[in-house]
Every structure is written in C-alpha cells, then in structure tokens.
C-alpha cells in the first residue's frame, strides 16, 4: 500500500478510537474505582480483543473481496453510511458517560480478561470493522500484507488509547464527570465521523 493510504487509515483510526465506546467505558470504570494500576492490564486486554475482532472481520472482508468485486464495492458504500449513522448517534449522545466506578478488587488477569471479552465478543466491534476496513483496502494489492499492516497499526493505537484513558480517568476524575466537556467531546467526535462518511461517499462518487 502507499504511505498516503496508511496515513489516512492511521489518522481515521486515531479519531475513531478516542471516541468512548463500550470498551473505553469499561476502562474508565476500572480506572475510576481502582486507580492507575488498571492501565496496563486493561490496555493489553483491549489490544487482544481488537486483534480478535479485527482478524475475524478482515477474514470476512477478504472472503467477500475474493468472491465478488461488486459485493465488495457495495460493502464500501454501506460502510460509509454506517460511519455517518455512528456520527449522528454520537453527536446526539449528550453529555454523560455511563461509567460507574468499579470498586470490587480485581486481579490484573481478571481485568485483562474482562477487557478482552467486552472488546472481542461485542457484535458491534465486528460490524464496525467490516464497515470501516474496506474503505482503505486496495483490491489490487496483496490482501495479507495489508491485513498485517492495518492490524499492527490499529492494535498499537488501541493499546495507547486505552492506556491513556485509564491514566486520565484515574487522575482527572472531575474532567471525566464533567457533562459540558463530555458533550463537547461527543459533538466533535460525531462531526468527525459524519465528515469521514461523507468524504468516503465523495471519493466513491468521484472514482465512479
């Protein structure tokens, strides 16, 4: 793949990861209740969960790519629409995070496993990857090389994102609980997602 394609994927991934979803809410819950020691096991669990969900998704996308170019193109259009839908939903989410502090004593292994389960077995994760990944795949390039690069990039950023959220939540609890800050964050993230979906539609229309 070209450097530009990888850079676009990395930038889009960074934007999407920073938007709180079920996995990050779990990370915040543990960090609020048990402090900074949760950061490393939770981040590892999130990375392993994303690896699982992303691998399953990539294999499905690869099968579609090998089966029909028309179906693969339709999946890209559906993916763009899904990004816009997620953006609108996030924009209207308001200013609250559903993350209650988890004060029950948990071992590092238990936290890691919990993060893996929530990330890997969430059907929305696989749906998201199936919608998101085709936007950056080049059907003419080697699929397995692209899969390796995309997974390594996403998992590295996912680990850093979860680790950062855990540290911030454990030390800046007032910010995490501030409705105004969360509301602005959700609106900014929703706008970026809608923009990503519209940009994808524009690229598809321009190349057709």
UniProtKB/TrEMBL annotation:
The answer to whether keyword Transmembrane applies is yes
Record InterPro entries: LeuE-type (IPR001123)
Subcellular location, principal: membrane
- Membrane disposition: Multi-pass membrane protein
Q: Which Pfam families match?
A: LysE
User: Keywords of this protein's UniProt record, alphabetized?
Assistant: Cell membrane, Membrane, Transmembrane, Transmembrane helix
Membrane: is it a keyword of this entry?
yes
The domain of life is Bacteria
- Mind telling me which residue stretches traverse the membrane in this protein? 6-32, 44-65, 71-91, 112-137, 143-169, 181-203
Q: Where in the cell is it found?
A: Cell membrane
Identification of the protein by name: LysE family translocator
């Amino acid at each position: 793949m070209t450097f530009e394609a990888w850079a676009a994927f990395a930038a889009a991934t960074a934007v999407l990861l920073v938007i709180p979803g079920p996995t990050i809410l779990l990370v915040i819950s543990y960090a609020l209740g048990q402090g900074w020691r949760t950061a490393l096991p939770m981040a590892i669990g999130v990375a392993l969960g994303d690896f699982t969900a992303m691998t399953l998704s990539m294999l499905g996308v690869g099968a579609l790519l090998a089966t029909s170019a028309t179906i693969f193109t339709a999946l890209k259009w559906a993916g763009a629409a899904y990004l816009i839908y997620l953006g609108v939903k996030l924009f209207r989410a308001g200013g609250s995070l559903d993350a209650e502090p988890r004060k029950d004593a948990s071992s590092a292994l238990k936290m890691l496993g919990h993060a893996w389960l929530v990330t890997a077995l969430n059907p929305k994760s696989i749906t998201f990857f199936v919608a998101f990944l085709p936007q950056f795949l080049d059907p003419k390039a080697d699929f397995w090389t692209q899969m390796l690069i995309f997974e390594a990039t996403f998992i590295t950023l996912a680990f850093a994102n979860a680790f950062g959220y855990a540290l911030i939540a454990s030390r800046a609890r007032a910010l995490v609980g501030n409705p105004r800050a969360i509301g602005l964050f959700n609106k900014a993230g929703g706008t970026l997602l809608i923009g990503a979906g519209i940009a994808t539609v524009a690229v598809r229309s321009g190349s057709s």
